[in-house]
Amino acid sequence: MSSKFPIAYIDVRAFAHATEDTDKVLKAIQNTLPTKLIETINVAKTSLAGHHGNPITLYETRIKEKTTTQKVFEKISANLGIMDKELLSNEIQLHLENGNLYLRLDKQSAYLEETKLSQIDPIRFRIHFKNSKTQQVIEICRKHGLLP
Questions:
Q1: Most buried of 62, 127, 130, 146 (most Cβ within 10 A)?
Q2: What pLDDT, on the 0 to 100 scale, is given for residue 44?
Q3: H or E element: which one contains 12?
Q4: Residue 96: what pLDDT?
């Protein structure tokens, strides 16, 4: 494996529903990112309408800069608890597809500066690995501490 960081890009997406404070949702997203890099990451905001016409705000960004993708990945790896890492390890096949690792982080926890996996109304991360087969992605995740 080369010394180049194996992640091509990271997509981050979250929805702010009508009942949520959009500033808090943005803050939750920013809390998952390395503090020193928040200013360099442009999070786009799109207004959408829900099924019943309710307003929904979509926040999304694609992080492509090599050092930034590495720092984001390392922050998630460092902050995710051991129980979540073990759960992720046990269910890794459900989170991998076509060189992408899909993570869903709890939005409320992220707002409180905690990193926890969640399926319900999450901040979604799609981490795209360069030309990586499933086994390579798993090894990279172990090497960087995302998996136990």
A1: 127
A2: 98
A3: strand 7-16
A4: 97
